[in-house]
Amino acid sequence: MWKAVVSQPLDRTSQTEQLGEVDTAAGEFWVRSPFQMPQLGHNLSAFEANRLFVNINGEQFVDASFASQANIDSDSRSAVAGDMDRDGDVDLLVGSVGGGPLRMFANRISTEHHRVRIELQGTASNRMAIGARVVLHCGTKAITRDLFPANGFMGQSPAELLIGVGSATSIDRLTIRWPNGELQEFEDLPVDHNIQIVEGQEGYRSESF
Q: Could you give phi then psi for residue 37, rounded to 5 degrees?
């Protein structure tokens, strides 16, 4: 374990006196200024086991760290969520400090629900279509998603949309508002497919998971 107090972190002359006892046998330490840490040979890598929680029906979370084998003892920093193996569900790509391989945790949780992955390519708009808004109409339900790839520490999710549509067996209508404001609509699209749409083109490409 470690203890750290940062006071006025942009002031390298700032000093903070020790506030209490530290257990050096357990790896605790104190420095009067965090800027002294490199020259004293200290670091804050805690090597705490990772945790993975699974959402149950949108009401609670279950700790699946051990069952998923995601509880690796490593100083992980980046976690990228995306369909890495292209099978229609969300996987995790985890990177840790100190080198070593990236670890991919493949999603193997079965589900009866349907989903669709949408890949957009801009032409008049930016090529990755960042900022596009997609609306799926399935029966009486409308699902809205904006294309803004999540940026985390040392990682970024793919520029695509993986959207769950529940028990719907088709998409009645799909509306895209491209970043430049132009609108496009498509009707009667399949679920459980990867759908690729190019801005301004009437058709689309579709491939099952």
A: -60, -45
For residues 132 and 123, give the distance between their C-alpha atoms in angstroms, rounded to a whole number. 12
Contact residues for 162 (Cβ-Cβ < 8 A; gap 6+): 82, 83, 88, 89, 90, 115, 116, 117, 118
**Dihedral angle over CA of 34, 40, 41, 42, nearest 10:** -40
**What single string gives the DSSP state of each residue in 134-148?**
EEEEETTEEEEEE--
121: its two tokens: 């390519």
Q: State the Cα–Cα distance between residues 107 and 115, nearest whole angstrom.
A: 14
- The SS3 assignment for 208 reads strand
Annotate 43-65 with b (16+ C-beta within 10 A) or e (fewer). eeeeeeebebeeeeeeeeeeeeb
Which residues are within 8 A (CB) of 171 and not within 5 positions of it... i.e. 6 or more apart? Answer: 116, 136, 137, 138, 165, 188, 189, 190, 191
Tell how far CA 101 is from the center of its chain: 19
Q: pLDDT tens for residues 87-111?
A: 999 999 998 876 667 889 999 888 8
**Residue 150 to residue 188: CA distance in whole angstroms:** 29
- What are the domain boundaries of the chain? 1-44, 53-105, 114-208
- Please give the model's pTM, rounded to 2 decimal places: 0.72
Q: Domain 114-208 classified CATH 1.20.1070?
A: no
What is the DSSP secondary-structure string of 70-99? ---SS-EEEEEEE-TTSSSS-EEEEEETTS
Q: What letter would DSSP give residue 181?
A: S
